[in-house]
Amino acid sequence: MSDKQTNTPAKRTLCMVAIFAVAxxxxxxxxxxxxxxxxxxxxxxxxxxxxPQALRDRAEPTWHIALKEKGREFAAPLARLLRAxxxxxxxxxxxxxxxxxxxxxxxxxxxxxxVGEITHEGSIxxxxxxxxxxxxxxxxxxxxxxxxxxxxxxTFIDFQYPDGGDLVTILKxxxxxxxxxxxxxx
Length: 186
Known about the structure:
Distance between the termini: 94 Å
Shape: globular
CATH class: Alpha Beta
Order of helices and strands: HHHHEEEEEH
Low-confidence stretches: 13-32
Number of helices: 5
CATH architecture: Roll
Radius of gyration: 23 Å
Largest sheet: 5 strands, antiparallel
Structural class: alpha+beta
């Protein structure tokens, strides 16, 4: 066979497609690997700020403080659901909403939290969050924070709980009826 027969236009096209596919796959791998440190920084900074807030003794839930002071760090759909839960609870003496800290998956915060593994599925990145007590990291994650890049910045879109469930699903579940409405403030 001569060189002219083996170097057909179809073979050249197939070769170019293969080279392009390898280049695209390598670019995707590089992008995911270079994005993980950015995710780690975003999530780590939030938890470094949030954990000390959660340890303070206050009547108001810490996640309310986070919505007030760090509201831009939550995707709009998640922020709306959290505010709806907050509003429902404000109208009722009974507990009708969240009865735990949704960002720590706990009622009793640890001294410190650290970011563990970062994984991704498409545009969604998941950061495992571990509690740290007396210098010892927990053996399993307490919560898995889901983040996504939106308008050039990272935002939390959901929080998964290792024993099952996630915050968005919990917030979308119908609230308990209020049997003791809170008096209207004037």
